[in-house]
Amino acid sequence: MSGSETKRSGLTRRGFLKATGAVAGAAALSGLAGCANEEGSSLAATGEEERHYARCMWSGCMHCGSWVTVRDGVVVKREPDPDEPFNNRPCLRGYSQIQRLYHPNRIKYPMKRVGERGSGEWERISWEQASQEITDKWKGYMEESGPQSITLYPGTSNGGLINGAAISLLKRLWNTAGFSVYDLCIDVGALTGVDRVCGGTGFDKPGNHYASDIMNAKYIVNMSANETESTLFRWRDIASACENGTKYIVIDPNQSTAASKSDKWIRCRPASDGALLMGIMNVILDEGWEDEDFIRQHTVAPYLVKEDGKFLRASEFGIEPVEMGMNPMTGEPILYDAPILMGEDGSHGTVEEVAAPVLHGTFDINGKKVTCAYDLFCDRVAEYDPQKVEEITEVSPEDVRYLAEVFADGPTRVHLGMGGQAYNNGHSIGTALGCLLSITGNLSKPGAGMDGGYFGLPWNYLYMMPTMTMGPTLPWLEVADMLETGLEPVSGQPFPIKCIYSIGALYGGGIDANWVKEKIIDKIDLLVVADTSMTDTARQADYVLPAAHYFEFEDIITNPTNEGAVKWHDKCVDPSFECKPDGQIVRMLAEGLGMGEYFQSTDEEFWNEALSSPEFQAAGVTLERLREEHTIRFELYDIYHENHIYDTPTGKLEIYCENPVPRMANVHEWDYEQEHLPYWFEPNEAWPDKEIMKKYPLILTSERSRDRHHTNGFELAWLLEALPEPTLKMNPADAEVRGIQDGDYVEVYNDRGNAVARAVLNPGMRPGMLLYPKGWQKHQFKDGSFSDCSNHEYCPVTVNSSFMDAAVEMRLWEGEE
């Protein structure tokens, strides 16, 4: 209880927190307060204070509104804005950014490597020298190997319109120069499947509404998402909904904190979520609980499928396709070749002609055998009866039926976490989930759909394309092969990669870091890193550029959020040391490349250009309003898909996919016929009957903790108080057979690498699973790192990192503490 004494020191918990908080605060401010000016400054000089409006700017965050107090040029306090309409309660990750601003690990000035990569031997250089040497090398690469040989590795740090990686001046430079950019291939496994059924581009999830819409849900189904730890801003909304009567169901292999708060927790085997969803649909169809009217009107269920897997279309009856506008990317006309349906009266015609199409049946039309897409779908789902699903998932038929009732009753809202999709079979979750929402009508109405998506706002994207050019996008997972062969895999054409420009990114991320370093980092000519802190990536760089923290510049936030709002962020203090905002760095590089003419506008002119879209203008969104109001909610059109026109090739929900394609083109084999319909398959490693699990019988998985946003804040004192070193959760039974006790240092290992961490025995863990918190840099481990053990193999349909699809063994660590 509060005030009780600990056994080790006699210090009370309240006293400990007070003492450590004071020490951390002093460490953040004393001695570091002068980092905006190398001669130093005194906190007590005048006591003059200013208040500025600031937010966190990284991707995936809700950018909570807060007031920042500055005293004598030093940030001393951050507090929530009670008048902010959305997300007005910053979390510990946000409050601790004051420490990041003044941390000794800040990169203070441009540096050039003088020793071996990773040796830590640097030479301090000027910005002018850094810019000239980097751009001289770039111009040489462009002449010898083409502009695409210079690649951008974007992270999830700053998300400003001027200062960021996604919609920013950096992307303007990359598009203008024709440089290439890496697709990070992370956290898009399940979303690839969802997109195939419901349309979209990954994070604008189907039926995704404003965060407040969660209050309309009768049920919230959480799939492998521990919102109580990973997304506190979302948990607050869920808790409010539960207080209002919403039922909260958690599907997770482990008894997470979220599971402990649920009305019902269903424990499934890792990597089996797709099969569970198929079983839920099996019960729904068997019981007749589907929403047949919704299916008939808004899905491709009544479309007739030929024996070659294609839809029967009007052109096969001599009706010419209709031109439906132009494709803005290709300049080619968009042609509409109407599908043919069978009516209840026995006549067939186009979707516009048949008012009451049938959902079942096989027919002969003009000598062509065709079958309703819905029959093909139902036949596939019939393969997953509850008994088979129990064998795969270890979820009882009774619980499968319970979940079927939840989706059939509705409105049901799903929060799809990133855990289940980080296996080789991740997209099987998305296709099955998209189909499940479709057949139960849990889309396009209040309270239903998927939570946790992000709205992309209607910027004037020409702001990033002044020459209407852009370079290619490369799958990060294929870069190693490209460096090995010098070829683009699909076309077979020469594609040398000479330079990686990394902004706020960690090389390797969740995938095999040893492999990334050996196969990618060590094989490129030049690695340039722009960041605020000396990360593992910066330690490997040839040039390090000191980027400003977001408290050190003003900007409009472009990272999308789940409440559809345009947000302003004030500059609080001047940049420290020789740090520069990303936009200034880009301008210097553009000038060095001879492209300065495209960057002569002021920040204000660029902001106004980006806000000049017809949608923003119609809504009265202006820079002046934004600066004054800080947050402008943009009423997104058709937010519930009220017209039921979905962003798919047919405009319908595609429970049958006529032309399945991989998320990104690649040369690996995949089963085209299988991909027409949802299905489940075993992961690459993390499954009981896999040969590798005889040698490595444990599954190494990860979680997002409340102490980190990715690796942001890895060095901050307040966050390290909460979690001072890498840990590894395990079931006590797995620990006992290996002679491991709570608090021991243990080593996990496989053929790819190893990691040493502190053991945390947790009976809520599923036996056979290990769980570590994300966010650690490799140099913070006593040996190895968790990503050294992870798997860089991937499914060619999703081209997504399968970093949880990793089999390992564990033992007591024999090193010195």
What is the element layout, followed by pairings?
Elements: H1 13-29, E1 49-54, E2 66-71, E3 74-80, H2 92-95, H3 97-101, E4 111-113, E5 122-124, H4 127-145, E6 150-154, H5 169-177, E7 180-183, H6 189-198, E8 219-223, H7 227-230, H8 232-243, E9 247-251, H9 257-260, E10 264-266, H10 273-287, H11 292-298, E11 304-306, E12 322-326, E13 333-336, E14 340-342, E15 348-350, E16 362-365, E17 368-372, H12 373-382, H13 386-393, H14 397-409, E18 412-416, H15 427-439, E19 449-451, E20 473-475, H16 479-485, E21 499-503, H17 513-519, E22 526-531, H18 536-539, E23 543-546, E24 555-557, E25 565-569, H19 582-592, H20 603-610, H21 614-618, H22 623-629, E26 631-633, H23 692-695, E27 698-703, H24 717-722, E28 727-730, H25 732-736, E29 745-749, E30 754-761, E31 769-773, H26 786-789, E32 807-812
Parallel strand pairs: 6-7, 6-21, 7-20, 8-9, 8-18, 9-10, 18-19, 21-22, 22-23, 27-31, 28-30
Antiparallel strand pairs: 1-2, 2-3, 4-5, 4-23, 11-17, 12-13, 14-15, 16-17, 24-25, 25-26, 27-32, 28-31, 29-30, 29-32
Account of the 3D structure:
It is a single chain. The chain is α/β, with parallel strands linked by helices and 817 residues long. The chain is built from 26 helices and 32 strands. The chain has four domains: 1-30; 111-185 and 491-559 and 579-633, Rossmann fold, CATH 3.40.50; 189-451, Dimethylsulfoxide Reductase, domain 2; 692-812, Barwin-like endoglucanases, CATH 2.40.40.20. Helices cover 27% and strands 18% of the residues. It has an eight-stranded mixed β-sheet with strand order 5-4-23-22-21-6-7-20, covered by helices on one side. It has a six-stranded mixed beta barrel with strand order 27-31-28-30-29-32. The two termini are 31 Å apart.
